[in-house]
Amino acid sequence: MNAKSIKQQQAKWKIPFFTIWTGQAFSLVGSMLVQFALVWWLTEYTGSATVLATASLVGLLPGIFVGPFAGVLVDRWNRRVVMIVADAIIALATIGLAYLFAAGAVRVWHVYAIMFIRAVAGGFHWPAMEASTSLMVPENHLSRVAGLNQALHGAMNVVSPPLGAFLLSLLPLQAVLMIDVGTAALAVVPLFFTYIPQPRPRPASAEAQEGKPSLWRDLRQGLRYVWGWPGLFAVLVMGAVGNFLFNPAFSLLPLLVTDHFGGQAFHLGWLEATTGIGILLGGLILGAWGGFRRRILTSLMGFVGIGVGILGLGLAPASTFWLALGATFLVGMAIAMTDGPFAAVIQAQVAPDMQGRVFTLMHSLLKAMSPLSLAIAGPVADWLGVRIWYVVGGVACVLMGLGAFFVPAIVYLEDNHNARPACDVETTEAAFVPIGPVE
Questions:
Q1: How far apart are CA 84 and CA 217, in angstroms?
Q2: Mean pLDDT across the stretch 6-11?
Q3: Under 8 Å CB-to-CB from 225, ≥6 apart: which residues?
Q4: Buried b / exposed e along 145-157 (16+ C-beta atoms within 10 A)
Q5: Which of 174, 204, 326, 369 makes an SS bond possible with 101, Cβ 3.0 to 4.6 Å?
Q6: Cβ(421)–Cβ(317) under 8 Å?
Q7: What confidence category does residue 215 fall into, taking pLDDT thresholds of 50, 70 and 90?
Q8: Are 299 and 337 in contact (CB under 8 A)?
Q9: What is the number of alpha carbons within 13 Å of residue 87 lying toward its C-beta?
Q10: Rounded to the nearest 5°, which phi and psi values hold at 36?
């Protein structure tokens, strides 16, 4: 095979993958518009902080408790079908809520119920997409694709709030909800015609040796897989501690703006916008650069950067709001550099038939830190002042990130586990085929 043929063969992945990726990007726009619209409606309709906190928990809890079981099922089922069904359920739930708004019959509990359904369906969709990426994208491009994902989310963080506010000023809320239905259709249609490789089924002898399949058995396998990989387990502990420190920093940002900087709502908007711009730029840089050869080193560098940015927020004098803007920009760039390469590590190194479980176990562990950290951070900030959380959290994260560079299990994360089999994916020459029965 000559060099031209090899190049053409390697480029074949781009059309099917980016066909799906583009559809999912449109769907993300619609989802974030719905999120903004519903939060704004709850704010105007109730004016209750308790209602908003409950809405956040309704969206958060499925990821914590349903996520691990969703990962088990994603590893069993056809991942393309999972994404189609999940997107369809989200669209149908949104149509139902739009009807209630149009009929003037909506109640707060209706919004909670739809947010819960959307979160559960999203808990299946997200790991299916992440696990499919590693089967469609060559390993040497995974970090770049992860960078594009980070850039996309950063752009949405910048664009969605003002776009949502603009649309709500022009359209009734039910019309904004129907935009999400349209973008969901743009995500679903390409999935009917785009082939996604599936992990090769486990040999019958292995299934017989392990016993009758069950959700609990497969979940235990995922836990053992993570526990038996020293580097991954160490990074997850580090990520859990980091999330415990990071989450309150973002939740307490309005208090930092008002109590310390003496700012208004537009100051908070600027801080959130610069975070999104930082994620966008960091994702674009990662997409072009690809990161260090050892991807985990890029993530550790980003982790230290997050700590420096949070520390900068805590130490910035009240008269230097521009320094706070620089700190949030740094945090955004560092988030892209942290999350993107680490996702690529999992996609490149974890066996394809385990990725759903590993992704959702990680996600559930990290999400579980949010309610715990918020319960502690609130009283601490009331007692010692809001800035203390940023200073202590920033210093702790910088020290933890720098210390990780001296932990061999973390630095050599991509080497200290059993490599996945070379032939564990069902492949085909066809890039586009009609959808068939669940495999």
A1: 27
A2: 48
A3: 350, 354, 357, 358
A4: bbbbbbbbbbbbb
A5: 174
A6: no
A7: low
A8: yes
A9: 29
A10: -65, -45
Half-sphere exposure at residue 342, Cβ-oriented, CA atoms within 13 angstroms: 25
Q: Report which residue type is found at 194.
A: T
Per-residue burial over 365-379, b if 16 or more Cβ lie within 10 Å, else e, is bbbbbbbebbeebbe
pLDDT digits (tens, 9 = 90+) for 390-437: 898 899 999 999 999 999 989 988 876 654 433 344 433 333 223 333
CB of 306 closer than 8 Å to CB of 335: yes
Neighbours of 48 (CB within 10 A): 12
pTM beyond 0.85, yes or no: no
- Predicted local distance difference test score (pLDDT) of residue 422: 34
CATH code matching the domain that covers 11-411, chosen among 3.30.300.10, 3.40.1180.10, 3.30.230.10, 1.20.1250.20: 1.20.1250.20
- Domain ranges within the chain, ordered by starting residue: 11-411
Query: Using CA atoms, how far apart are residues 360 and 244, in angstroms rounded to an integer?
Result: 18
d(CA 403, CA 405): 5
State the Cα–Cα distance between residues 199 and 128, nearest whole angstrom: 12
